């Protein structure tokens, strides 16, 4: 499990740790880890967007962009360590007389210099350390830093962000103004939420975490968590000798309409790959569903007359069709997606006795919240939390970094690490709904069902795509391969 902590939590932990260490020791730990990561990148270490061509530290050209705070201090001390190993290092102080004194002195003492002309050295740099702002930064790069940041990006050097790409919001992942896009980010003590959530995540490049000893001082519950293979493997249902199709769970799919018959087929396609023992389709698309998947149980509806299920997934391609209110009136978990989300009343959802899972994309989330889509996209974490609180439901907010929030206080939001932009294709969400509904029916709680489904769906998208366009149908077909990939870790562990 990868975890992320808010700035306030990291600062509190740092304070506790610092009180037990000699002055400046923590910054030296950070700088040592940062210099080691830079040496690796200069040596041709991969993982970052650009790869350095120099092959070694000795003789390489390094530029340190130093802001006014401790982030600049980290960068300058790391620059000093690289200078001591034979790199030619130039400092570009961006806050004139407020540069970290100790860091600058260390750099000069190790043979580094202050650049006469920042643009000249940035043009030839093999590596640029971005120490403009870290967790103390607010509101995007300042105007005087913008041309320097652009020159860094325009040069050929590998850009290494110190703790965070300067200009991004650490806690929310928002990018309020201009920010410096890095090839790699070396972060200290703990990941910050912004490193895992778009749009900021896109600025961070490859992530490296430097352990500075913060672990014992961080709370057990993080702000954000990202499941990994082994976590998902533990969640996925596995039938035993005692299982039969009913014990494995029946998922009911309420989807599709005369206008969108394909949504019914795709939601069923996802549901069949999701672990439930049987899929019951309810709606007008039964013929199309049976033509593709004869193993499906079909019924014209309404859901309350269609037979017992352990969970409903309602909404994909439903248009104005019926079924949402009926499914919501049931006493089993209900996933509501797409058309089902329109006019969804918080009071109805809150009054339910069984859990509800909402799976909006940014546009649907914006409509539910009564805000612009852009506001949801730039502040995904706040939006998903607000929706979960307002509806008393688990919410999966789809997008480049899919988030899952629980309505319960103190439960970390989950961020899905497996997505690919190729998943932004028609019908992809229908497959996800079916898959998540199937996992709900097999007994996972809504947060686990949503995050395991997003994980498998993202991985399936990658497997099916391999860097090329992919269709929703192919994503559904690749879920089995993704499932095997995930549980293979468990078998080998
Ligand atoms: N506290 C510690 O002992 C440690 C701190 N560490 C480093 O310290 C950083 C935090 O240091 P600080 O609290 O000094 O904060 P930062 O260095 O992140 O930035 C704060 C400074 O930047 C200025 N600033 C804010 N927004 C700006 C903007 N948009 N453009 C330009 N300047 C801006 C502020 O006026 C302030 O002087 C961490 O990100 C990490 O890199 C690490 O060395 C680990 C140990
Ligand atoms: K930085």
From TrEMBL:
One Pfam family hit: Carb_kinase
- Sample GO molecular function, one term: NAD(P)HX epimerase activity
Chain ranges of the YjeF N-terminal domain: 10-220
Taxonomic source organism: Streptomyces liangshanensis
What is this enzyme's catalytic activity, as reactions? (6S)-NADHX + ADP = AMP + phosphate + NADH + H(+); (6S)-NADPHX + ADP = AMP + phosphate + NADPH + H(+); (6R)-NADHX = (6S)-NADHX; (6R)-NADPHX = (6S)-NADPHX
Q: What superkingdom heads the lineage? A: Bacteria
UniProt KW keywords: ATP-binding, Isomerase, Lyase, Metal-binding, Multifunctional enzyme, NAD, NADP, Nucleotide-binding, Potassium
The EC number on file is 4.2.1.136, 5.1.99.6
Span of the signal peptide: none
What range(s) does the YjeF C-terminal domain occupy?
228-486
Subunit description: Homotetramer.
Task: Give the matching PANTHER family.
Answer: ATP-DEPENDENT (S)-NAD(P)H-HYDRATE DEHYDRATASE, ATP-DEPENDENT (S)-NAD(P)H-HYDRATE DEHYDRATASE FAMILY MEMBER
Q: What does this protein do?
A: Bifunctional enzyme that catalyzes the epimerization of the S- and R-forms of NAD(P)HX and the dehydration of the S-form of NAD(P)HX at the expense of ADP, which is converted to AMP. This allows the repair of both epimers of NAD(P)HX, a damaged form of NAD(P)H that is a result of enzymatic or heat-dependent hydration. Catalyzes the epimerization of the S- and R-forms of NAD(P)HX, a damaged form of NAD(P)H that is a result of enzymatic or heat-dependent hydration. This is a prerequisite for the S-specific NAD(P)H-hydrate dehydratase to allow the repair of both epimers of NAD(P)HX.
Q: Name the lineage.
A: Bacteria, Bacillati, Actinomycetota, Actinomycetes, Kitasatosporales
- Requisite cofactors: Mg(2+); K(+)
GO terms of biological process kind: metabolite repair; nicotinamide nucleotide metabolic process
Q: What does the UniProt cofactor note say?
A: Binds 1 potassium ion per subunit.
Which residues make up the binding site for (6S)-NADPHX?
A: 70-74, 134-140, 163, 263, 317, 361, 430
Family, similarity comment: Belongs to the NnrE/AIBP family.
Keyword tRNA processing listed? no
**UniProt binding sites for AMP:** 398-402, 429
Q: By what name is this protein known?
A: Bifunctional NAD(P)H-hydrate repair enzyme
Record-listed K(+) binding positions: 71, 130, 166
Cited NCBIfam families: yjeF_cterm
């Amino acid at each position: 499990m990868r975890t992320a902590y808010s700035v306030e939590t990291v600062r509190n932990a740092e304070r506790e740790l610092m009180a037990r260490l000699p002055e400046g020791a923590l910054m030296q730990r950070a700088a040592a880890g940062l210099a080691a990561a830079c040496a690796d990148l200069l040596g041709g270490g991969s993982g970052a967007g650009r790869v350095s061509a120099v092959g070694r530290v000795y003789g390489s050209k390094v530029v340190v962009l130093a802001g006014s705070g401790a982030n600049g201090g980290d960068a300058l001390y790391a620059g000093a360590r690289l200078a001591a190993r034979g790199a030619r290092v130039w400092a570009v102080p961006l806050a004139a007389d407020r540069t970290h004194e100790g860091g600058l002195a260390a750099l000069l003492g190790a043979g580094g210099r202050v650049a006469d002309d920042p643009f000249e050295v940035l043009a030839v740099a093999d590596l640029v350390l971005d120490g403009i702002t870290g967790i103390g930064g607010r509101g995007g790069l300042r105007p005087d830093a913008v041309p320097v940041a652009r020159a860094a990006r325009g040069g050929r050097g590998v850009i290494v962000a110190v703790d965070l790409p300067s200009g991004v919001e650490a806690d929310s992942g928002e990018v309020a103004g201009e920010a410096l896009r890095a090839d790699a980010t070396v972060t200290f003590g703990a990941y910050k939420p912004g490193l895992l959530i778009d749009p900021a995540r896109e600025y961070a490049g490859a992530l490296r975490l430097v352990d500075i000893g913060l672990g014992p001082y961080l709370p057990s519950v993080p702000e954000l968590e990202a499941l990994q293979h082994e976590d998902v493997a533990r969640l996925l249902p596995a039938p035993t000798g005692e299982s039969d199709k009913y014990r494995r769970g029946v998922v009911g799919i309420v989807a599709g309409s005369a206008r969108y018959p394909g949504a019914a087929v795709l939601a069923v396609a996802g549901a069949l790959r999701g672990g439930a023992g049987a899929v019951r389709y309810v709606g007008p698309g039964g013929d199309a569903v049976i033509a593709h998947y004869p193993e499906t149980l079909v019924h014209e509806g309404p859901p309350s007359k269609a037979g017992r299920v352990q969970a409903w997934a309602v909404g994909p391609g439903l248009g104005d069709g019926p079924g949402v209110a009926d499914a919501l009136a049931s006493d089993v978990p209900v996933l509501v997606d797409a058309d089902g989300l329109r006019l969804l009343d918080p009071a109805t959802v809150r009054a339910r006795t069984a859990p509800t899972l909402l799976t909006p994309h940014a546009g649907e989330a914006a409509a539910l919240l009564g805000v612009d889509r852009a506001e949801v996209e730039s502040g995904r974490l706040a939006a998903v939390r607000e929706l979960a609180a307002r509806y008393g439901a688990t919410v999966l907010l789809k997008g480049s970094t899919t988030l899952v929030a629980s309505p319960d206080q103190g439960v970390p939001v989950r961020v899905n690490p497996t997505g690919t932009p190729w998943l932004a294709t028609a019908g992809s969400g229908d497959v996800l709904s079916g898959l998540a509904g199937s996992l709900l029916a097999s007994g996972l709680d809504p947060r686990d069902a949503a995050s395991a489904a997003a994980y498998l769906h993202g991985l399936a998208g990658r497997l099916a795509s391999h860097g090329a366009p992919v269709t929703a149908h192919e994503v559904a077909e690749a879920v089995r391969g993704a499932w095997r990939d995930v549980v293979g870790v468990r078998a080998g562990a």
